[in-house]
Amino acid sequence: MRSNQVRMNNGITIPVIGMGTYSLENDRRTTENAVHMALKMGYRHFDTAKIYGSEPALGNALKDAIFDGVVQREDIFVTSKLWGSDHHDPVSALKRSLQNLGMDYVDMYLVHWPVRLKPWVCYPVPKEDDFDQLEMEKTWFGMEKCLELGLCRSIGVSNFSSTKIESLLDFASVPPALNQRKLREFSGDHKIHVSAYSPLGGPGNLWGTTAVVDNPIIESIALKHGATPAQVALSWGLSKGASVIVKSFNEDRMKENIEALDLKLDDYDLLEIEKMEEDKTMKGEFLVNSTTSPYKSLQHLWDDEI
């Protein structure tokens, strides 16, 4: 069984399998029950965001578990994210998230997208008039302030191209500890940990696909190891040094996902998987328009890295 934690560039360790808490329904009781199940199975890394609406349910479940002695606060790793409407004041935004979570700090705070929205935009798909001018240097200064105030232990980015991270590194006093995307080579060169969000393609979501778990290469390797396609896909991500954020509230699938820690792929398996065509599932089409968005095309949003 491989190590279930990796160390980031700031010396803090992050559990390599995390549980995502986004769900379209965002039913508080369902989310809380799933978090309790996850803790019993050994999950210690939980991913949320202001825009998911799951912070209160996650916080409540973790508070109960800590009170009951199931875990201690220092044993769990909680990630939340800065939504586009809060770029003008990350400190206040994180304080609100902490209030939702009932916590004094989060372990990781990420800039959710490289997009700034008007302060009133509290919904996931912005309208044409909702976009504002992105000033990433000011946003990152606010993120660093969150770190300085002890509101979080680490800061990072999500959905950033390597070009955008390179630009950020030009002015950052504190480099991002984590990038929630697949830019492995660039991130590795800059000692930025990569966390793969929806590594199974997000099946079950409106934007999701089963292309990963249905791929013949993945299915063949799964058959060879007596594993499931999901376990093969997750094991591949872990073999690259990434952490993986999986979202399922189904008890059997949650157990299946964490058991990917026990699966060791051989060199042939890894070479076969490298032959597969890469694709971004969540491309961010909703952040692109020809008039008010800073990004007129997906190629522009991703700096032709798509």
Question: How would you describe the overall organization of this protein?
Answer:
This protein has 11 helices and 12 strands. It is α/β, with parallel strands linked by helices. The protein has an 8-stranded parallel β-barrel with strand order 3-4-5-6-9-10-11-12, surrounded by 4 helices. A two-stranded antiparallel ribbon has the order 1-2. The chain has a two-stranded antiparallel sheet with strand order 7-8. Helix 1 (28-41) packs parallel to helix 9, helix 2 (55-67) packs across helix 3 and helix 7 crosses helix 8 (229-239). The chain is globular. The relative contact order is 0.13. Belongs to the aldo/keto reductase family. One of its GO terms (biological process) is indole alkaloid biosynthetic process. Substrate binds at residue 112.
Secondary-structure blueprint:
Layout: E1 5-7, E2 13-15, E3 17-20, H1 28-41, E4 45-47, H2 55-67, E5 77-82, H3 90-101, E6 108-111, E7 116-117, E8 131-132, H4 136-148, E9 155-158, H5 162-171, E10 178-180, H6 184-189, E11 193-197, H7 216-225, H8 229-239, E12 243-246, H9 251-258, H10 267-274, H11 298-301
Biggest sheet record: 8 strands, parallel, barrel
Please bin the fraction of helical residues: 25-40%
Q: What distance separates the N and C termini?
A: 34 Å
The count of strands amounts to 12
Q: How many helices does DSSP assign?
A: 11
Strand content: 5-15%
Structural class: alpha/beta
Q: How do the helices and strands follow one another from N- to C-terminus?
A: EEEHEHEHEEEHEHEHEHHEHHH
Strand line-up of the largest beta sheet = 3-4-5-6-9-10-11-12
